[in-house]
Structure formats: structure tokens, C-alpha cells
């Protein structure tokens, strides 16, 4: 199969990827150019950020987040990478993830901030979940990741946080929320969550790019990334919804993209109207971060963790 762009220009370069939903075959050069243009288009359409702003890019060491960081650098945006070391020792997971992020930053001349839960809070994410007597490590992890992203953004004076969520993630989340009729989540699901009540803006520049596209971008750019998932990750419901959508996509290419785009255009505004008024936020008495309670969830968990650890040691 020949690259469409090359073919239109009278050249016969072979394609390295075929995007069925776009009916587009591209060589390496033109795929990378096309991918970056698509991301730039999303950034501008949703007014995510400008080249005058610094974007805090959350990087786990996976293909999506590192590809996002690479794209933003290539497009000339000012970035600061943030890697959260969770202290997971199994498979050398956290150590390897941090090494990969540091390697990427050095190779691309970018700045990286590493936030270690163990160093900052005294416990790894697994220890926090165990001492807090939480069976679901993933939910605790999500709470702490969001907290740390907001905290680092605040400390650095940054107003925009970018994550590598792709179209597959967004479509699966949308299907999950629709199956449960989660009005609140449906009303808030968007490539952009505006800055409000002390929280920085959250953006997803890859919201319209498939996982196939992001991993292809990483591979073609020679980006080293974690190929194994977190050892604490279990078979989540999101994987079930992703498989269901993948089967439909195979029969009807473009389904995921249409599903998500049409939701944003036609359905989200309706759900947004149904949202209840925002709860009044206050400052956490322990850390000063925005919260609906006197003490935020992270400080509450850490308080319990320290009490349980102290009680056990005694």
C-alpha cells in the first residue's frame, strides 16, 4: 500500500500505517506530520493553551503520556513534565518508569519534576492503601495522582495540566457512563475542564487520537516506553468497554470517533444543564488545597494511615 500524500505528489513511497476510519494510508514522514497537525487542531479548537503558557504534562512512562510530551515539544509549546513515583517495587515498576521519564527528558532537552510519594508522604501507594484498609489500590492511586498534579501545578504557578488520555479511553469512559446514566460525569466529560475554584485547567490533546495512532507515533519516534501495565491493575470495566467498542469499530470503522464527537456536540450540553450547582469549596485545614470538606480526602487518608502505622508499630 502506498502513502496517499506521496502518491498524490507522484511518488511511490510505501505506507507504514493505514487509518481505516480516515481511509488514509501514510508513510512515516507524513504520518508524523499528520498526527502532530491533528493534535494542534484539537488544541486550537478547544483553546486548551497557548505558546505563552507553560503546560504541566503528566507522564507515567507509558506510550500515551510520553507521545503527548513529544508532540507538544515538537509543536513548540512550553512544557514541564511531571512524573509521580508511586513507590511500587514489584517488577521494578516505579524505578523503571522514572528512569524512562528521565531518559526522555534528557534526550529531548526538557525539564522533568519527579514527585515521590514515599519521600513526600512517607509511604508508597501500596502502603497507603494497606494502612488505610482500602482494597482497591487503583482508586486510592487515582485520588493521590489528581492531588499531586494539582499541588505541583499550584507550587509552580502553572494553570494548565495535560494528560495523555486518547480516543479509546474517552469512548470507553463515555460508554461506561452512558450505561450507568451517570449524569454528573456525562455533563463534565470533555477534552477540557476549565480552571475553577483553585483547580488548574485539565486538558486532553489526544482526545480524538486512537491508541493505535499514539503507539505508532511513539514507535516511529523511537520513544522508549513502559510496555507492561501497573502490577496493581486488575481487569477493569474500562477494558471490557474498550473490547466492545473495538469489535464494533472493526465492523464499522469510525464508530468511536463519531460516538465521542456527536456526544460532545449534541448530548453533553443537555447533560451539562442537569448538573447540580457546584458545592462550595473551602481550603483544607491541613494542606490548603481546595476541598468540599474541612480536611481534603488525601489528608484524611494520610491521617488514618499514620495513625494505623503508629498503632501497629506500638
How many beta-strand segments?
10
Oligomer: single chain
Global geometry: globular
Helices and strands, in order, run as: HEEHEHEHEHHHEHHEEHHHEEH
Describe the sheet with the most strands.
Answer: 6 strands, mixed
Protein name: TIGR00269 family protein
Pfam family, one: TtuA_LIM_N
Keywords: Transferase
Domain tRNA(Ile)-lysidine/2-thiocytidine synthase N-terminal: 55-225
Features:
314 residues; alpha/beta; 6-stranded mixed β-sheet; two-stranded antiparallel ribbon; 13 helices; 53% helix; TilS/TtcA_N; transferase; Ncs6/Tuc1/Ctu1; tRNA_thiolation_TtcA_Ctu1
How would you explain this protein's 3D organization?
This protein has helices at 4-8, 28-45, 63-74, 93-108, 117-121, 125-131, 137-156, 167-180, 183-188, 211-220, 237-251, 255-274, 297-313, and strands at residues 17-19, 24-26, 54-58, 78-85, 112-116, 160-162, 192-193, 201-203, 282-283, 290-291. Helix 8 (167-180) crosses helix 11. The strands form three sheets. Strands 5-4-3-6-8-7 form a six-stranded mixed beta sheet, with helices on both faces. A two-stranded antiparallel ribbon has the order 1-2. A two-stranded antiparallel sheet has the order 9-10. The mean pLDDT is 93. With 314 residues, the chain is α/β, with parallel strands linked by helices. The radius of gyration is 21 Å and the shape is globular. 36% of the residues are buried.
Draw up the topology in text.
Layout: H1 4-8, E1 17-19, E2 24-26, H2 28-45, E3 54-58, H3 63-74, E4 78-85, H4 93-108, E5 112-116, H5 117-121, H6 125-131, H7 137-156, E6 160-162, H8 167-180, H9 183-188, E7 192-193, E8 201-203, H10 211-220, H11 237-251, H12 255-274, E9 282-283, E10 290-291, H13 297-313
Parallel strand pairs: 3-4, 3-6, 4-5, 6-8
Antiparallel strand pairs: 1-2, 7-8, 9-10
Helix pairs in contact: 3-10, 6-7, 6-13, 8-11, 8-12
Amino acid at each position: 500500500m502506498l502513502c496517499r500524500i506521496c502518491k498524490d505528489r507522484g511518488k511511490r513511497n510505501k505506507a507504514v500505517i493505514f487509518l481505516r476510519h480516515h481511509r488514509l494510508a501514510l508513510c512515516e514522514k507524513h504520518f508524523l506530520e499528520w498526527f502532530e497537525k491533528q493534535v494542534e487542531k484539537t488544541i486550537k479548537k478547544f483553546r486548551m493553551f497557548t505558546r505563552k503558557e507553560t503546560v504541566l504534562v503528566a507522564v507515567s512512562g507509558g506510550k500515551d503520556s510520553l507521545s503527548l510530551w513529544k508532540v507538544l515539544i515538537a509543536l513548540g509549546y512550553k512544557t514541564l513534565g511531571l512524573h509521580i513515583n508511586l513507590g511500587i517495587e514489584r517488577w521494578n515498576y516505579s524505578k523503571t518508569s522514572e528512569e524512562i521519564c528521565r531518559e526522555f527528558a534528557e534526550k529531548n532537552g526538557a525539564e522533568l519534576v519527579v514527585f515521590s510519594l514515599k519521600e513526600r508522604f512517607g509511604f508508597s501507594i501500596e502502603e497507603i492503601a494497606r494502612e488505610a484498609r482500602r482494597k482497591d489500590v487503583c482508586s486510592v492511586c487515582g485520588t493521590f495522582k489528581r492531588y499531586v498534579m494539582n499541588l505541583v501545578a499550584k507550587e509552580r504557578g502553572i494553570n494548565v495540566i495535560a494528560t495523555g488520555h486518547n480516543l479509546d479511553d474517552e469512548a470507553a469512559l463515555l460508554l461506561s457512563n452512558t450505561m450507568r446514566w451517570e449524569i454528573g460525569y456525562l455533563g463534565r466529560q470533555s477534552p477540557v475542564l476549565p480552571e475553577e475554584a483553585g483547580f488548574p485547567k485539565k486538558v486532553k490533546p489526544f482526545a480524538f487520537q486512537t491508541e493505535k495512532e499514539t503507539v505508532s507515533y511513539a514507535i516511529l519516534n523511537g520513544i522508549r516506553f513502559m510496555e507492561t501495565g501497573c502490577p496493581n491493575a486488575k481487569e477493569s470495566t474500562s477494558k471490557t468497554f474498550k473490547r466492545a467498542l473495538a469489535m464494533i469499530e472493526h465492523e464499522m470503522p469510525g464508530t468511536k470517533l463519531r460516538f465521542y464527537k456527536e456526544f460532545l456536540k449534541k448530548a453533553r450540553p443537555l447533560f451539562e444543564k442537569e448538573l447540580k450547582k457546584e458545592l462550595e469549596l473551602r481550603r483544607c485545614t491541613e494542606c490548603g488545597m481546595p476541598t468540599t470538606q474541612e480536611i481534603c480526602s488525601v489528608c484524611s487518608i494520610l491521617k488514618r494511615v499514620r495513625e494505623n502505622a503508629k498503632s501497629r508499630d506500638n
